[in-house]
Each structure stands twice: as structure tokens, then as C-alpha cells.
Amino acid sequence: MQAIKNAVRNDVEIRNVIKKFGSTTVLNGIDLEVRQGELLTLLGPSGCGKTTTLNLIAGFLEADEGDVYIKGKNVTHIPPYKRDLGMVFQTYSLFPHMTIYENLDFGLKLRKVAKADKERRIDSALHLVKMSGLEHRYPRELSGGQRQRVAIARALVVEPELLLLDEPLSNLDAKLRHELRVEIKRLQKEIGVTTIFVTHDQEEALSLSDRVVVMNGGKIEQISSPTTIYNHPETEFVFQFIGKSNCFHGTVTATDSQKISVQLEDGWGTFVDADNVMGADRTCRTGDQVKLYIRPEKLFITPSDQAQPGPFHKATITQMNYLGASWEIDVALIGKPVQILTPMYDASWQIGKEVMIGWNPSDIMLIKK
Amino acid sequence: MESVRHYAHQEVTQESPLNPKQETEPEKGSQRKKKKTYVPGLLLLLPILLFIFGFFVVPMLYILYLSFIYTDSPTATNAVFSLKNYMLFFSDSYYLSSLWITVKVSLYTVLVSLLLGYPVALTMAKSSPRVRGYIALLIAAPLLVSIVVRNFGWYLLLLPNGTINSVLASLGIIDSPLKLLFSEIGVIIGLSNAYLPFMILAIATSLYNIDPSLERASAILGASPLRSFFSVTLPLSLPGIVSGCVLVFSMSMSAYVTPALMGGANVPMMPVVAYDQINNLLRWTFGSALSYVLLATTMIMVTVFTRGFEKSKFREVFR
Amino acid sequence: MIKITGKLRLIFTILTIIYILVPLLVVIPASFTSASYPSFPPQGFSFQWYTKLLERPEFMTALINSAKFAFMAAFFAVIFGTLGALAIAKYDIPGKAYITSLLTSPLSVPQLVLGVALLIYFTPLMLAGTGTGFLIAHIIICIPYVIRLVLTGLSGFDYNLERAAAILGASPLTVFWKVTLPLIRPAIISGGLFAFLISFDNVTVSLFMVSPDMRTLPIEIFSHMQDAYDPLVASVSSVVIFISVILIVILEKLQGVGKIFGGTH
């Protein structure tokens, strides 16, 4: 039981977990550590296994193989009601036949908390989520946002070992979602409870998390900080799932410790930072067929008559969309569609006009085909 | 063709703690199908309305009127408008005991159906839609076979020399046959057997409507499955329990065939007595009064029962 | 612990389903008895009670009567009910909710009371004991089911389809025949089948409507059971079960029997 001796304590450890539903494998060998006090997000498309992972931690599902530890204790075969966790669900899941007070009291009653202590804790939990004074309302009488605040209070009032959040914001409208997101982040830092957050919304994941776990097809693709996930994805899937992307095809012509030279399909060449290779072994050799990825906002665009340093190429504007804070400009680069996102605007940019497109070698990610 | 479209517009309100807004509530029925003129609709309704009115509403009101007409004998012409039929009913211990037996047997039927039906409904709620469909078919199909046939099946099983008594006797459990048929027990078996499907389906429907994450929420807060059942699932299925009980109770109160075949003269339930008065004794006015006493008793009991729940501490469940 | 209670519940469920089905399950084997009294399990095996059934014309007449009246009752109930349901679903008629509950109210009045009321009402009208009287009574008990089923069928109906057809130049009558009717046909057919079974099986209301010259099969069985106790009831009951099962299978394919009673989503 001396599994945890690391400098950073892990509140949750998942060891080589496999979970099957019938003949489909939903989790195919998951290893995951959740550090004490962090907010970890499980992110991925539907069916990637993120909810299954959360349900394994909660105890609603049992792993077919592998083990789950919470605070050093093997809980693989322990039912949810003996795990002492807090959880917030997508559908709020407040007990409709109980007042807000009774909802919060539910877990405390089961823990046999003394009455005076109980009232104090319920008060402070409701205060924490800014819902004081609504103790005697029924859930039906609250709005969606209010219900979710109460649900968070109900999860926190029992002072759980872990806080699990299962897409808690996805039933709310955009404005409320943002508001509650900020709130959750504040609460989590204030209380310091180790939190696991499941979402399919990348913006939510990037803005909330200390670390993001990107999952796909029952496997973990990458576990990193939000900035690393966005700027230095380790796999093609992560690059494409997080944010928008442009893709070019080419062949590696030379490599050294600093740079990789790539010849693009249309005959042009570009450099890529040697650190920017994605994929399992993160290396490539001369002659490899590769794909290059770059995000729309990392591309430069300048009027065609202005001379620029670096690799710049001529392109024709095909479409311009005004997004308020920025412009989304579609261009044809030797017949290939490329999208650019830029806060800048030049009056000469018109549909059908020529512009120059450029990029930094450090912004291009490369993967072997 | 002129038609006016009414777009369902959603009110947009600022969210504040004291201004509840229900973002997730689905819009109440599309109003787009509204027509400005409903005259063609009335024409379509006319035949059925006339039919129901002429052959249902009027006859029902006619026997209500008749129940207040008293005659000494079916052929007497000295009809007077009075409460005498009802007074006769409430002063005769035979009729009162008939009413009491009817209520008692109906309540037992409700109890048996509830106890047998709830676990089945729970199984349906926890099964896949496919299994749910099979169970629904198995329990609902007998409703479409005539009640006389089902009662005959019980004859085979319950008669003194029937299957159950033979088995019990051959096992040495009983010495003389149990009186299962032509007794209250027989009627309760027959009625609960016939109406159990309604109870199951009513409860199952309300169980389907319970958000499955509520049980999970309860488990994660520390409640054992048994505890979750009693504090979450059971109270939230109360609407189904109440409507199932009301349905089974009303049907049992007014059942005629099963009490007649399986109770006979030993279990004179109200419908059997009323039938006798009308068809054999030709006492139409008194029979009408009996019918309305039965109807009123059922309605009063159902209303008190339903209201009781809607005013209880579980009232929130019924909204 | 959870698994044990789950298993217990499953066993209990199976037993309860058997309890619901058992009266029907014992009837069929009992009809093949070779003895002179019905029993389950049957004594020996023979078809004698089926051949004896053929020698009893009253059962055959009653069966034909039942089928004939059930068909007519279902037919009229479907016509009245479909028109009514269409009106309720499509037009914004004031007091719609009240009309709907009025049209389904024959369901909530005890059949015995309905029978009493109609017998008393029909007697001075010279309809008591006649085929017309019987038919009217059966239409009344069938109407609520047709209304309910057709309304359910219409609840998912996309009225834009009717508009689309009208825009394309279809007259209101063409729209009804070519668009509306085909789309709600399954609901109408199940409504009709259901009404047929309700009428075919009915005893309580029929008891007040039959005359010695005009009896239906359930009535025949009912009075036979009160007078005598012989395996003839078993064989005739088996015939009823057989007919019901065929119709139930059709209904299940069309609509889902459980769904009609509100059992599945």
C-alpha cells in the first residue's frame, strides 16, 4: 500500500483499466493520476470514454481489468455510496421532492452530522454558491443556472474526498455557461478540493483546468497543461480536436538537431522546429512523407505588394467573414483552401485579390503519414 | 387559404436569484397548428358529439332522474319524486353490507395489485427498451382476451377439486379443500389478476420519468441502494402509484363479471346486486339509485385519496 | 447485496407475469381432456370437446354475432372517432380539453352503470334487445379507445406536410386522402382492431343488450359457466384465445400492445 511516495500526492490513480460493454471496448488500458488539489479535465468527443472513466472513479461502473485508487485506497470494487465523493451531473439531478435545504441535508443526514453543525455547513455552502436565502424553495422554482449552483453546493457540503463534475454546464445557455465556469474555477481554488471535470467543450477545458486529459477511442492521447495541449499537441488527433487547423502535405528533405526541411507538394519548402514533431516516436527522417499542421491564427497575411521576411507565398482570397473581434479569411494557396484568423484588416483585402501568406517554423506541427 | 401563424415566442428575461427562469423546460406544444377559424373542426366533431350526447350523456342523466323516482312496484303508476330510493338503500343492512364488501374487496385488490405490481414495474424501468416491450406485451395481452375466459381459467385452478387444492392435498398440506372459489378470496384473486397490468403500466410510466441520475446522485451522497429506493425512487413514483391505485380501485368497484362468476351469491358486490335489481327484479328506479350510489362512493373515495396525496408533504412530486 | 436484490426482483417479476398469464395458460390444455369434466392438468387427450362444439349451433351463431357486431361497432367507432380526433388535434376549438374528456368519459363510467342506463333508456325507444341497440352500446364503449389511439397517432403529426401539399396545389380533400390519412393510417387501424377486441370481448354492457334471439360468444360462455361446468367452455374459450392472439399479434406489429395501454415510451 505504499504506492504513493511521490513528491506530489496523487488523490486518484487509475492503473491499466479496461472496460468493455458487451463486445465493444470502451476503455482500452487507461493509466491516470490526479494530483492533490488540481482541477483535471477529461476532454474528448462523445464515445471517447471520458464519462466511463468518471463513472469508474465514482463507482457507478466496475472495471473489467485494472485498479482504481482514491487517496491511496483501492476502491475498484467499492460501491459509490461508500466512496465519500461529491458529484455534479449534467441534468442538475436535484431531488425534486425535497427543498433546497433538504437536498443539501441529504448527504449530511447520512453522515450523521450534528444539527448545529449541519445548519452552519448548509448556510456556508449556499453562501459559497451565492444561493443564500433560497433554502425553502423547491428545485422546480429555480432556473437552470440556480439549480446547478445548488447542485454544486450539495456536492461540496459533505466535504468530499473528490469533486466529480459530469458536463455540468452543457444544459445551460452560453452566457450562463461562461458565468458558472468562472465560478467553478474560483470555488475550486478557494476550497482546494481535487476536482475531475468531464467535458466535450475544448474552450471549457482549456480555461478551467490545471491539466487536460485528451481522450479518444478509449485511450488517453495526451495529458498536459492547457497551453501545451494547444501549442504542442503530441498527436494529430489532439491537434485537430483542439482548435481549428490547416493541413499541408510534403516530404522531409533534410533534418538536423534544430530544424527539419520539408518540401511541400506544390514545390515550396519550409522549415519546421525539430521539437514540433508529433506522433509516437516524435522523430522523422529524410524522405518521410509528412503532414504539416498550422492553426489559422498562426498564419500571417499581408498585402501582396509588401515585401516580408521568411517563407511567404502568394494566395487568392476566396471568402471573408467578419467575426467581430477578428476576421476569418479563406484563401486558395495554389488551389488548396487555407483558413486564416487575424485581428488585422487591410482595405485592399477583397475577394479575388492576391495576398501574401506566411508562418513561423515554430508554429508548424509535423507528423509522419 | 387563409391561415394565421402564431410563432411561439420565448420570453427572454434576465437571470436573477429571485426571478426563476426555466431554460430547459420544453416549449408547451407548438402553437403553429392554430387556425383562426375552427368551424370545419366543429363540423368534424358534430357526429361524435351528437352520438355521445344522445346515447351516453342523456341516458346517464335519465337514470339519475329515475333514481329520485319512487314506485312501490315495477308496474305501479304511483310514481313520486323523492329520496326514498336512497333512503331505502341506506336503511337496509343488506345493501349497506354489499357496499362495504365492494369497498373491502376493491381495497384488497388494490393492495394485492400494488404489492405484486411494483417490483414488475421496477424491473421494466431498469430493463432495456426491448425487454420492456416484451414485458409490456406479456402483461397487456391478457387484457385483450375476454374476462370470462380468464375467469374460467381460475375455475380450473381454484375449484374444490381444482389444480391448487389437488396439489396442496397431495402434498399433505391440507386435509379438506380450501374454499377458494365463491369467496372473497376468489374475487380478489380474479380482480387483481385482471387489473394488475394496469397497475404495473401506471407505475412503470412514472418510473420511466425519473431521471436516472437522481439515483446516482443519491448513491454518491452516501445512500445505499435500499436507502436510495425509499428516499428517492419510491416518493418520485408516487404519481404512478396513485393513478394505478385509482384505476384499479375504480375498476374493482364497478366490476360485474368476476364477482358474479367467482363470488356468486356469497360475495354480493354492488354491481351484482344492481344487476339483479334491474334485470331480474325489474326495479329500475331503485337500480338506478344503486348505480349512482356506487358511482358516488367511488368518486368520493378516489377524490379523497388523490387530494390527500396532493396535499401531503410529497405534493411537489405531483406537479 | 445489490445483485441479490436484483435477482430476487427478477424472480418475483417472472412469477408475477406467470400469475397474470396462468388463467389463460391452463385453459388450452384443459380443452383437450378426454374426461367429462374440465381439469388442469387434463385427463388423457382428445378432440371430443371441439367436435362437440361443432354440434352446438348456439356457439357458432354467437361467434358469428360477436364478429359481426364487433366489426360494425369498430367501423362506426373509427369513423366517428377519427373525425373527432382530427378536429381536436387540428383545430383550435374552444373548450377542447373538456370535449376530449367528454368523448373519453364512457371509459370512466362503470360498464354496469352504462348498461343499466342504456337498457332503461332504450326500452321506451323500442331499441332494447335489438341489434341496433346492441350496436349503439358497443360503439359507445369503443369510441374512447379510438379517440385515444388516433390522438396519440396525431400527436407526432407534422402539419407542415399538409401545408407543403397545399402549396404544391393539392385541394383540402386531396391533402386529406393523399397526405393526412396515409400518415395516420397505423393509428386508425390499431384503433379499429382495438375497438373490435373491446367489443368482441365485452360481457357487462352486452348482458343488458342481448335478447334470447341475439347472443354473443362471451355472453354464451358466461351463462354456460353459470349453468354447467363442462369442458365445452374450455374448448370455446380456446377458440376465443386463438382469435384474440391473432389480433394481438397484428396490434403488436402495428403499434405495440404495451404502448396502447401506456406502458412504454
From TrEMBL, chain A:
It is an enzyme of class 7 (translocase). It comes from Aneurinibacillus aneurinilyticus ATCC 12856. PANTHER family: SPERMIDINE/PUTRESCINE IMPORT ATP-BINDING PROTEIN POTA (PTHR42781), SPERMIDINE_PUTRESCINE IMPORT ATP-BINDING PROTEIN POTA (PTHR42781:SF4). Pfam families: ABC_tran, TOBE_2. One of its GO terms (cellular component) is ATP-binding cassette (ABC) transporter complex. Keywords: ATP-binding, Nucleotide-binding, Transport. Its EC number is 7.6.2.9. The complex is composed of two ATP-binding proteins (OpuCA), two transmembrane proteins (OpuCB and OpuCD) and a solute-binding protein (OpuCC). Residues 12-242 form the ABC transporter domain. SMART domains: AAA. The lineage of its organism: Bacteria, Bacillati, Bacillota, Bacilli, Bacillales. GO terms for molecular function: ABC-type quaternary ammonium compound transporting activity; ATP binding; ATP hydrolysis activity. This is Carnitine transport ATP-binding protein OpuCA. It catalyses: a quaternary ammonium(out) + ATP + H2O = a quaternary ammonium(in) + ADP + phosphate + H(+).
Automatic annotation (TrEMBL), chain B:
One of its GO terms (biological process) is transmembrane transport. Coiled coil: none annotated. Pfam families: BPD_transp_1. Residues 99-305 form the ABC transmembrane type-1 domain. GO terms for cellular component: plasma membrane. Residues 11-21 have a biased composition (Polar residues). It is found in: Cell membrane. Residues 1-32 are annotated as: Disordered. The keyword Cell membrane applies. It is a multi-pass membrane protein. Its main location: membrane. CDD domains: TM_PBP2. The keyword tRNA-binding does not apply. It comes from the Bacteria. PANTHER family: ABC TRANSPORTER PERMEASE PROTEIN, INNER MEMBRANE ABC TRANSPORTER PERMEASE PROTEIN YDCU-RELATED-RELATED. This is ABC transporter, permease protein. The lineage of its organism: Bacteria, Bacillati, Bacillota, Bacilli, Bacillales.
From TrEMBL, chain C:
InterPro entries: MetI-like, MetI-like_sf. The keyword Cell inner membrane applies. The keyword Membrane applies. Belongs to the binding-protein-dependent transport system permease family. It is found in: Cell inner membrane; Cell membrane. Signal peptide: none annotated. This is ABC transporter, permease protein.
